[in-house]
């Protein structure tokens, strides 16, 4: 019985070691500021969809799973992040006739030759319009698997943040909020939960161009990161002032008193 208990404890520890939660999402002042311009319209969010499997679970180095610390997987993480940005911008209302939902088509992770997150998503409006964005985030990885997966979990929220930045800053984003020419059902929501019923939308993607690549570099423990300092050298004008220097002539020292003859003469006189 004791051996069985020890085995269960060890199995639980091994399982927990294979799970790596991503960091909690932090709001972006730029996104909040941009969305606040639409606070008069209000936006509702439907359940995000994904063609990459439930939750978008990603394996790191074949043994560690990068997952969402909250409800759902990495796709739900993007949805919750977008809702939190809208709430901070005072632009969110679950009862709004303007309904947006996301369709995530890629969440991929690489930590072998170089750290990289890639996320592709289409943001769809119930007025029939949509825009798409792709985020490719590079980060510094590690040869040690545990350390590499740790950094991967720490940097996922940066990739999500950059993705949302591209979407809300798109010149076509305001077109998603225009009234639709046909009636659309609203998503059923209960608090933060969704019934899964999606509004009837038509996919007409408008790609965002250019697709930028972001870079995140996290210094390793004990690593000193050099600061890049740009200096501008200003010409300095120096005026030389002539200085008069008076040199006193050296006093000539007579060595006649030090001659050997004089010393002998003095001795004889004594």
TrEMBL record:
PROSITE patterns: PROKAR_LIPOPROTEIN (PS51257)
Signal peptide interval: 1-24
Biased composition (Low complexity): 229-243
Domain of life where this protein originates: Bacteria
Region of interest (Disordered), residue spans: 175-200, 226-270
Comp. bias intervals (Basic and acidic residues): 249-270
Bias-annotated ranges (Polar residues): 181-200
Keyword Cell cycle attributed: no
Keywords attached to this entry: Signal
Protein name per its UniProtKB record: Lipoprotein
Source species: Oxalobacter vibrioformis
């Amino acid at each position: 019985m004791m051996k069985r208990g020890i085995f269960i404890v060890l199995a639980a520890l091994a399982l927990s070691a294979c799970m790596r939660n991503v960091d909690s999402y932090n709001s972006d002042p730029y996104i909040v500021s941009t969305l606040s311009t639409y606070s008069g319209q209000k936006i509702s969010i439907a359940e995000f969809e994904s063609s990459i499997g439930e939750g978008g679970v990603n394996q790191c180095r074949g043994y560690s799973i990068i997952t969402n610390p909250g409800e759902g997987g990495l796709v739900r993480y993007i949805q919750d992040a977008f809702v939190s940005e809208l709430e901070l911008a005072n632009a969110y209302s679950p009862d709004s006739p303007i309904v947006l939902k996301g369709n995530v088509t890629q969440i991929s992770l690489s930590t072998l030759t170089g750290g990289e997150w890639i996320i592709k998503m289409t943001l769809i409006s119930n007025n029939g319009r949509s825009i798409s964005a792709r985020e490719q985030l590079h980060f510094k990885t590690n040869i040690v698997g545990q350390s590499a997966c740790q950094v991967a979990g720490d940097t996922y929220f940066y990739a999500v943040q950059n993705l949302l930045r591209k979407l809300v800053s798109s010149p076509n984003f305001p077109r998603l909020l225009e009234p639709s020419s046909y009636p659309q059902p609203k998503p059923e929501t209960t608090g933060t939960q969704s019934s899964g019923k999606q509004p009837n939308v038509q996919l007409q993607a408008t790609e965002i161009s250019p697709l930028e690549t972001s870079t995140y570099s996290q210094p390793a423990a004990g690593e000193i990161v050099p600061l890049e300092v740009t200096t501008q050298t200003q010409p300095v004008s120096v005026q030389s002032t002539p200085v008069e220097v008076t040199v006193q002539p050296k006093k000539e020292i007579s060595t006649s008193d030090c001659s050997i003859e004089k010393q002998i003469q003095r001795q004889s006189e004594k």
